[in-house]
Design goal:
The complex is a heterodimer of chains A (199) and B (240). Helices cover 5% and strands 29% of the residues of chain A. Chain A has 199 residues and is mainly beta. In chain A, the strands form 2 sheets. In chain A, strands 1, 2, 3, 4, 7, 8, 9, 10 and 11 form a 9-stranded mixed sheet that branches. A two-stranded antiparallel sheet of chain A has the order 5-6. Chain A starts with 19 loop residues before the first helix and ends with a strand. Chain B is globular. Classes of the chains: A mainly beta (199), B mainly beta (240). Chains A and B meet through helix 1, strand 2, strand 5, strand 7 and strand 8 of A and helix 1, strand 1, helix 2, strand 3 and strand 4 of B. Strand 12 of chain A pairs parallel with strand 1 (34-35) of chain B.
Chain lengths: 199, 240
């Protein structure tokens, strides 16, 4: 026998299901009047520093169908690479956004500021990126990934460097489609499957 | 500098693909996840303040009508504590729930089950944990309902939970089931947890001592989020 370890075990995930919007984005589900407004409508408010960008995309299932019921959340640093709450962070950047694939088109839109590069422990460097978390019916535990930008220098990024099959890096890159607009599609399975993260 | 998160123990979570839960077939990644130590993106996260929370937000019996009427159903109190893997309470964190009404019908544009909507029930609630990580909701017990999967599948009564913690890497969505429900063992979604002891931890016991006579029954549901590793060696250069 040894001393018992007094650590707890994380509560198991269960799928968010098809009605996740009721709890997370009530107005999307048609539930009005409980809350004054949905949580996480925008990651920025007026006066946020940096380049305002709009990212559009879809979440595709293994058959290539753009899912109509996915819910996404994003979290990011401000334009100078500081996370909300950290010293000197831009007060106009909450960093958090919640958005859903459109019920008709399956497209999502995220309007935010382009984040700055960040640093981790031991000098690890991270190119500008937005963390994304995806839940839906049929997803048994939320899927994490990152949006990087094809028009940034990603060569020193400590996470992208871990991807052995180099063509898969492209699954994490948003590509510019116009002035301040980007495209980022997420593929859950099969050809071009997005790199999902376990961090 | 923030502290690294304890690695997620994937073995206590559902398998991504479970054939009897048909939708998971095309929505589960087939390639391995990319694993590495957490970074500031996972170790920081959104915080929400009390100004967000309205007076009725954690009372689903009355929050849809803002106190004008009560929802139909068995009145229950659902309460518990949000902790991390170290056992510490997680204070001031947002807990959101959503559920079907007493007849098993969701107030959602996509739910077409013929059980009727309840004019006095919306089905969502939220609250912040207190300084010790405790939370509570008043609601009605949701009904079981059939769903399109195999020809005759029914969801056990359940309440969906969404919890933030203090780091984006702690983000968790799960479901609470009710003690004694015979549909739990027949549910393909519950069965995505291959380890029965983990499923048992999602089943809230009836707690008579926290129930109130002539008013409500209480169910207890504690939640554990990932912890953060703390060591005085943590900020030394690698290998030193």
């Amino acid at each position: 026998m040894v001393q018992p370890l007094e650590t707890l075990v994380e509560t198991s995930s269960q799928t968010a299901g098809p009605y996740v919007h009721i709890g997370c984005i009530p107005s999307f589900a048609g539930v009005q009047g409980v809350y004054a407004e949905d949580l996480g409508l925008s990651p920025i408010s007026n006066g946020a520093q940096g380049e305002v960008i709009t990212i559009t995309g879809s979440v595709f299932d293994g058959t290539g169908w753009a899912m109509r019921d996915a819910m996404l959340e994003s979290w990011q640093a401000d334009a100078s690479g500081r996370y909300p709450g950290q010293h000197g962070a831009d007060p106009a950047v909450s960093g958090f956004c919640r958005f859903a694939a459109d019920a008709d088109s399956g497209e999502y839109t995220l309007r935010t500021v382009k984040p700055g590069a960040t640093q981790g422990r031991n000098g690890a460097r991270f190119a500008p990126h937005i963390s994304v978390w995806i839940v839906a019916r049929g997803i048994n535990i939320g899927l994490s990934t990152r949006i990087y930008f094809a028009d940034e220098d990603n060569s020193a990024d400590a996470l992208l460097a871990r991807i052995e099959q180099r063509p898969r890096v492209d699954t994490l890159l948003a590509h510019k489609t116009g002035a301040g607009t980007y495209r980022f599609d997420i593929r859950l399975q099969g050809q071009g499957e997005t790199v999902f993260l376990d961090l | 500098m923030t502290d690294p998160l304890m690695p997620r123990r994937r073995e206590v979570h559902p398998v991504p693909y479970w054939p009897e839960y048909k939708t998971s077939g095309t929505r589960s990644p087939s390639l391995p996840l990319l694993s590495m130590e957490s970074t500031p993106s996972e170790e920081t996260g959104p915080r929400f303040g009390h100004s967000l929370i309205g007076p009725h937000d954690n009372n689903l019996i009355v929050n849809y009508t803002q106190g004008a009427a009560s929802a139909v159903g068995e009145r229950i109190r659902v309460h518990g504590r949000v902790m991390d893997e170290t056992g510490r309470g997680v204070p001031q964190t947002l807990v959101e729930i959503w559920q079907a009404n007493a007849g098993g019908r969701y107030r959602h544009v996509k739910d077409t089950y013929f059980a009727p909507l309840d004019d006095s029930f919306g089905g969502c609630g939220r609250t912040l944990t207190d300084d010790d990580g405790r939370y509570e909701f008043m609601t009605i017990k949701p009904g079981a309902y059939p769903w399109p999967n195999r020809a005759n599948d029914w969801r056990p009564a359940h309440i969906h939970f969404s919890i933030f913690g203090h780091a984006f890497g702690q983000r968790l969505i799960s479901q609470m089931y009710f003690e004694g429900d015979p549909l739990i063992d027949r549910c393909p979604i519950a069965a995505t947890l291959q380890d029965r002891s983990q499923l048992d931890r999602l089943v809230a016991p009836l707690e008579m001592q926290q129930s109130r006579g002539m008013d409500y029954l209480a169910y207890r549901f504690d939640i554990v989020l990932r912890g953060q590793r703390q060591s005085m060696f943590e900020n030394k250069p690698e290998g030193m």
